[in-house]
Amino acid sequence: MTTPSLITQDLTIRFGGHVAVNAVSCAFRPGELTVIVGPNGAGKTTYFNLISGQLRATSGRVLKNGTDLTAMAPSARAHHGVGRAFQLTNLFPGLSVLENIRLAVQAHSGDGWRLFRPAASLKGLTAKAETYLEATKLTPVAHQAASELSHGDQRKLEVALLMAMEPDIYMFDEPTAGMSLDHAPDVLELIADIKRDTTKTVLLVEHKMDVVRALADRIIVLHNGELLADGAPEEVMSSQIVKDVYLGKGVAA
Amino acid sequence: MTQKPSLIIKLAVLAIAAALLFWPFLFQDVRSIQVAARICVFIVLVASYDLLIGYTGIVSFAHVMFFGFGSYGSAIALDQMGPGWLPVGLGALAGVALSLVIAVAIGLLSLRVKAIFFAMITLATASVALVLASQLSGLTGGEDGITYKAPDLFKPATKLWLNAEGKVAQLWGVRLNGKLAAYYFVFLSSLMLFVVMLRLVGSPIGTVLKAIRENEARAEAIGYRVVAYRTFVFCIAAVVASLAGSVYAVWLKYTGPETALSFDIMIDILLMVVIGGMGTMWGAVIGATLLVLAQYYLRDLMGAAAEALSGLPLLPEILSPDRWLLWLGIVFILLVYFFPKGIVGTLSAKGAR
Asked: Per-residue confidence of chain B (353 residues) as pLDDT tens digits?
């Protein structure tokens, strides 16, 4: 088995008296796509926020290839290869689609601090951004403002931003939420492509069971902030504990 | 925004630039050249403020303070060391250095906090600077300010070019004297600073600033250290404002709280950036020009109108020059009503449709 690229050790966050994520220890490996499931309020998105840095852990650690990220700002974690797409569309609304993607390309090209040189003349950045436009089929709307896109295209742009960051760890938070049936396969296809690259680690929060079945190498179950189950898809999905969580104990008993 | 400026805006900016370039040859009275110099300086001052409020979404009330640091820097140096280029340079440098130190301190200590707290901190800092300037009267001349001499080149008696008879030469009926040199010093310095800012907003860093304005959290998430970029742009804006202050001090040959530090100037800057349009360098050009022109000429215009209508009842009373501030207020309200995104922003949005 390959060495893990991302490890969370006893990762915990407390909001006042409420423990949203409770001592979650888990290791993720390159070439593996892990789906995180759990009922609403289980702490899935909070767990993501702790890994990508939007929230700071109360205790526990986040390690990427042995580097401790726990105290780092989100921007520093991004530079360490942790990339994140958001559940609620989170773009630069007034900027064009191309500019949105170019920003993500620029962020890890080291050109962010280049002064006094027209951004448009940085051909390399634009060319690279265009490949992601094509991959996500957004080329026709490249020059529209992100705020003017349809919901489906906004979700695709969300994914394009993550891809343009070229991270080692891809974190998708319900990437197809609210997407129409004809758009969702495009996004799932992109995720499947990333999964084929065995150097990449993919974490995916998803509710739709057909998506989970199609993509998952492994499933972990969060419930009330705790790691409840972890294993191969068929094993976890058939386990009694998951049925209890999803259907309620009363039904299962 | 992503939209390009419309044709009207381009033409207007071009016309203003041409007018400022040839101003001394077009209008020769002392007052109008005063107006032109003020327009040049305020375009730079407003554009540098737009870097903060329009591009990055930072609300600061300390911008006039940085302008004041530059003004007082040059003024004090010219006052203490006598006229010359060395005191101008040293004073400007001192103003920039002080601006940088204060900007870095404010930026690092408080750009992490919420926008409203940041605005309050800048307000407090600027108030302290204003109080200090009026209390340290030994250095700053207190409420009276300082009057000093500009470098010799800018003396009205200086002859830039001599004709065959050994007198000051004329071009299109304008004497090529020191006053002309002083105006072009203001014009060219302002142009240079403005071009530098244009390059900045068009560069990769300019896109990052817009990204921070649009969605701070996402900018951080894709790998931009937001606090660092904000502090950086706050410093750049402070330095440019400070340099604009130095240029204006050399032009006016007088620096006091009224011309360099008062909150009236801060309000002028805010009005200019709102009227011109935020997030577009061109807005600064249009906003500054309109407001300065209105401040200087609305009164004259109303006086003329009142006189022309002197036979009629009531109208001359309403248009009396004493009521010019009332009319300026009405013009502002109308502008904000009809151009909610500023003149440049609103016209560009219409042009895009």
From this structure: 444 667 888 888 899 999 999 888 888 788 889 999 999 999 999 999 999 999 998 999 999 999 999 999 999 999 988 888 899 999 999 999 999 999 999 988 776 777 788 899 999 999 999 999 988 888 888 888 888 888 878 877 777 767 767 666 677 767 778 888 899 999 999 999 999 999 999 888 898 999 999 999 999 999 999 988 999 999 999 999 999 999 999 999 999 998 889 999 999 999 999 988 888 899 999 999 999 998 888 888 887 887 777 777 777 777 777 788 888 888 888 888 888 888 888 887 765 54
Q: Considering only CB atoms, which chain A residues are within 8 Å of B219?
A: 92, 103
B51 touches chain A (CB under 8 A): no
Distance CA A234, CA A242 (A): 11
A127 touches chain B (CB under 8 A): no
The domain spans of chain B are: 11-352
CATH of the domain at A84: 3.40.50.300
A36 found inside a domain: yes
- A-interface mutation test, from B4, B55, B218, B222, most A Cβ less than 10 A away: B222
CATH number of B11-352: 1.10.3470
Number of domains in chain A: 1
Residues of A in contact with B201 (CB under 8 A): none
- Among residues A107, A151, A105, which one has the least CA distance to residue A128? A105
Question: How many of the other CB atoms lie within 10 Å of CB of A224?
Answer: 15
Residue partners of A132: CB distance under 8 A and separation at least 6: A101, A105, A160, A163, A164
> 3-class DSSP state for residue A64?
strand
In a domain, A1, yes or no: no
Amino acid at B6: S
Q: Which residues form the domain of A135?
A: 6-252
Whether A13 is in a domain gets the answer yes
pTM of the model: 0.87
Contact (Cβ atoms closer than 8 angstroms) between residue A100 and residue A91? yes
